[in-house]
Write a structure and sequence with these properties.
This protein is mainly alpha-helical and 379 residues long. It has 11 helices and 6 strands. Among the domains are: 83 residues, no CATH class; 130 residues. The strands form 2 sheets. It has a 4-stranded mixed beta sheet, with no helix packed on it. Helix 2 runs antiparallel to helix 11 and helix 6 packs antiparallel against helix 9.
C-alpha cells in the first residue's frame, strides 16, 4: 500500500512532518499488515499522525494498526533516493573507465570528426573495433546523463535538504560540461596520435571536471542519506582541503603520463628512463617524470592526514595506488593496468571526499517541534 500526499484533495502533510521527513514523504510504503488502503498521513491534535484513507479504498478487515516510529518509514523512503544516487555514481565510474579505454586504445577517432553522430549516422553499421569502443562510450555517456538528470529532478522536487539539492544540480552541470569537453576532444581532433601540448592541457581540464563531477555525485548520495552539511570552518578543514588538492594534482599529472605512455610506448624500463631524461625527446614525454614525484609527495601527505584523523580506508587506498603505480611502471603500462590504476585513483578521490564530509559534518538540524509521532491506521 502507498501513502501519498495527493491521495485526497484535503490531505496534506504538516510542516513538522515535512521537517521530519526532509521532504521525502511523497510515497511511503507501509507493511502488508496495514492492508491495501490508499491515502495519506495527516497530524491530529494529540501529537499523532493518522492515516486518512482515500474514498473508495479497501479497508483492512483486521481493524486498526499502529506504527510506533514514523522515522522508520521516512528512512526507507529517503534510502530510495540515496540508493539511486549511489547507483548513479557507480555507473558513471564505469563510464569514466570506458573513456580511459577510448584514449588508451587510440579509439577516439572511431566516429571520425562527427559529434554527436558517429561517422555521420546515429548508429554505425559494419563498424570496426575502434568505432565500437567510441560509440559505446558515447551511448553510455547518454545513459549517464539521463540518470543524473533524473537524480537532479528527484532531489529538486523532493527537496530533502538544501545540500542535497545543490549537489544534485552541480552533478547535472558537471556532466553537461563533461559531455561538452568530450565533444571538444573530437571536434578539436585531440584524439588518436595527436601529441600536442594543447591536448595535454585539454585532457587535464577534462580530468579536473571529471573529478569534480565524481565529487558532486558522491556528496549527493552522502547528503541524500541524511548526513549534515560540511563545516569548512572546522579545525581540520584546511589540511583536508589540501589533501583534496593533492589528490587532484596526482590525477592531473597521471593523465599526462598516461597520454605519453599511450603515444610513446617503450620496450623496456631502461629505454623509458633514457627517453624521460633525453634533451631531444618530445616535451610531453619528458613531462611524465613528474608524475611519480608528485604522486609520492602528495600521496605521503594524504596518508599522513588520513592516519592522523583516522581515515584507514584512505591510507589503504594510497598504499594500493602507490603499489599499482609501481606495477604499472614495471609492466610498461599495459592498457588493463592503466585502467586499474585509474580505478584506484577514482576510488581514492571518492573515499577522500567521503572522509572529508564525515570528518567535517555538521549535525543535521532538528525540527522545531520535538516529539515522537505515531502513525495510527484507523478503520
Amino acid at each position: 500500500m502507498n501513502v501519498r500526499q495527493d491521495a485526497i484533495p484535503t490531505c496534506r502533510a504538516s510542516q513538522t512532518l515535512r521537517q521530519l521527513s526532509n521532504g521525502f514523504l511523497e510515497s511511503v510504503p507501509l507493511p502488508a499488515s496495514a492492508g491495501s488502503r490508499t491515502g495519506c498521513v495527516v497530524p491530529d491534535g494529540d501529537g499523532k499522525l493518522k492515516f486518512a484513507a482515500a474514498r473508495g479504498s479497501v479497508r483492512h478487515k483486521s481493524g486498526p494498526n499502529t506504527i510506533e516510529d514514523v522515522g522508520t518509514i521516512i528512512r526507507l523512503v529517503r534510502n530510495r533516493f540515496a540508493q539511486f544516487a549511489w547507483l548513479v555514481l557507480g555507473f558513471n565510474l564505469l563510464v569514466i573507465l570506458w573513456g580511459a579505454l577510448v584514449r588508451a586504445s587510440k579509439s577516439g577517432e572511431g566516429c571520425g570528426d562527427h559529434w554527436p553522430l558517429c561517422n555521420g549516422t546515429v548508429i554505425p553499421h559494419a563498424a570496426q573495433i575502434a568505432t565500437i569502443i567510441e560509440f559505446t562510450h558515447r551511448a553510455s555517456t547518454g545513459l549517464a546523463f539521463i540518470g543524473v538528470l533524473a537524480m537532479a529532478i528527484w532531489a529538486w522536487r523532493a527537496r530533502p535538504n538544501e545540500p542535497t539539492v545543490r549537489m544534485a544540480v552541480a552533478s547535472l552541470v558537471f556532466i553537461v560540461t563533461e559531455a561538452l569537453l568530450g565533444a571538444g576532444l573530437v571536434l578539436f581532433k585531440y584524439v588518436g596520435a595527436d601529441a600536442s601540448l594543447g591536448r595535454a592541457g585539454y585532457l587535464s581540464a577534462h580530468l579536473i571536471n571529471t573529478m569534480l563531477m565524481l565529487g558532486a555525485f558522491t556528496l549527493t548520495a552522502w547528503y541524500g542519506s541524511g548526513h549534515g552539511p560540511i563545516n569548512w570552518r572546522a579545525s581540520d578543514s584546511k589540511q583536508l582541503a589540501f589533501a583534496l588538492v593533492a589528490s587532484l594534482a596526482i590525477a592531473v599529472t597521471g593523465a599526462v603520463t598516461a597520454l605519453s605512455d599511450t603515444l610513446y610506448p617503450v620496450t623496456s624500463l631502461q629505454a623509458g628512463f633514457a627517453a624521460d631524461f633525453s634533451g631531444t625527446a618530445p616535451l610531453l614525454l619528458r613531462l611524465r617524470v613528474w608524475h611519480p614525484v608528485i604522486a609520492a609527495v602528495a600521496g605521503l601527505y594524504i596518508a599522513i592526514v588520513g592516519a592522523k584523523l583516522g581515515g584507514k580506508v584512505v591510507v589503504s587506498l594510497v598504499l594500493l595506488q602507490i603499489a599499482a603505480g609501481v606495477l604499472n611502471l614495471t609492466l610498461l603500462a599495459p592498457i588493463w593496468m592503466q585502467l586499474v590504476h585509474l580505478l584506484l585513483a577514482d576510488l581514492l578521490w571518492i573515499a577522500l571526499v567521503l572522509f572529508t564530509a564525515a570528518t567535517l559534518e555538521q549535525p543535521a538540524p532538528k525540527p522545531a517541534t520535538e516529539f515522537r509521532p505515531k502513525v495510527v491506521l484507523e478503520s
